[in-house]
C-alpha cells in the first residue's frame, strides 16, 4: 500500500468517525438543539491540521467535492419551480433583489476600506439562506404549518437558488459572459435530461429500470448518481462550479427519475447525508483558518450582524402586506440563517483567489453562529405565537 493511499484511508476513517459521532453528541446535548452541520464543521476543525492534525483535507478532496454536489443536488431536488409563479415566490424574489442591492452597497464600502479583497463572493454570501439546514429544525418544531410555510419555503428556495445562479455567472473561471452562456448550456442539458423518461415511457427500458429499482442493481439510484456526475463534469468543463451542475441535477431529478420517487428520496438521503455530505462539512472544518478568526474576531461578528441586517431586515418591508408583524420578525431570523452556501462560496473564493483567507474563515464562522442563534430566536417567536390566536397557523384547505 502506498503512503498516499494510506494517508487517504486514515483521513477518511477519521472523517467517517467524526460523522458517526456527530448524531450521538447532538443527542447527548439535545437540549442545546445544536444542528448537526455545526458539529461536523467543529469536528473537522478539531481533527484537522489546525488542532490535532489527524487528517489531511487534500487526501479526501474528491469525496468532499462529491459531497458538495450531493448537498446541492438535494437542495435542487426540494425546489418546486411552481412556487415562483405564486405570491410567496414573487415576494421572495423581490426580497432577494433588495438584499442583493444592499449587500453590494455594504460590501463595496468594506472593499473601499480595504476590509475585503473582492466583494462579489462576500456580497453573494450575505444573500443566502440555509434552507437545507433549516428544514429539520423547522419540521422538528412544527413551524411549517398553515400558509406561513409557503412564505418560508419560497424565501428559503430563492435564498439558495438565485445565489447559485449568481455564483455560476460571476465566479466562473472563464468570465461573466462565458459563465452566462455556460449556465444556459447546462440548463438546456438539464432540460433535455428531464425529457428522457418520456422517450422510454412504457417501453422495455422503463420496465427494466422499474424492476431493478429495489433489487441489487438499484437502477434508479445508479442512474441518479450517473446524472449528477455527468452534470458535475459538464459544469466543470464549462468553467463553472460543481454547485451549479448539482443544483440543476436536483431540479430535473424529480421529473427525470423513474420508479417510486418517495423511495428514491430515502435512498438519496441515505447516500448523501449518510456518507458524502458529512465528508464535505468535516473537510470544510479541517480547512478553516482558525488563526485569522482568533486574530480578528471582529470580522466574524461583523458578518454575523450583516447577515441579519442585509438578508433579514428587508423582510419587514417586503412582506408588510402579506404577513402580520410578529410573523415577519420570525421570518427575518429564518432567512438570515446561512451556512452551506457560505462554506461553498468560501471554498470557491479561496480556490479562484477572489477571497481573502481571513474573510473566508470569518464568513463560515458567521454562518455557524447564525445557525446556532437565529433559528433559536425564530423558534422562540413561533412558540409564543402558538400560545395565542394565529390566523396563519390554521392548516391550509
UniProtKB/TrEMBL annotation:
GO molecular function, one term: antiporter activity
Membrane topology label: Multi-pass membrane protein
Location(s) in or outside the cell: Membrane
Gene3D superfamilies: 1.20.1530.20
GO cellular component: membrane
InterPro entries, A to Z: Cation/H_exchanger_TM (IPR006153), Na+/solute_symporter_sf (IPR038770)
A Pfam family the protein falls into: Na_H_Exchanger
Domain Cation/H+ exchanger transmembrane: 19-375
Protein name: Kef-type K+ transport system membrane component KefB
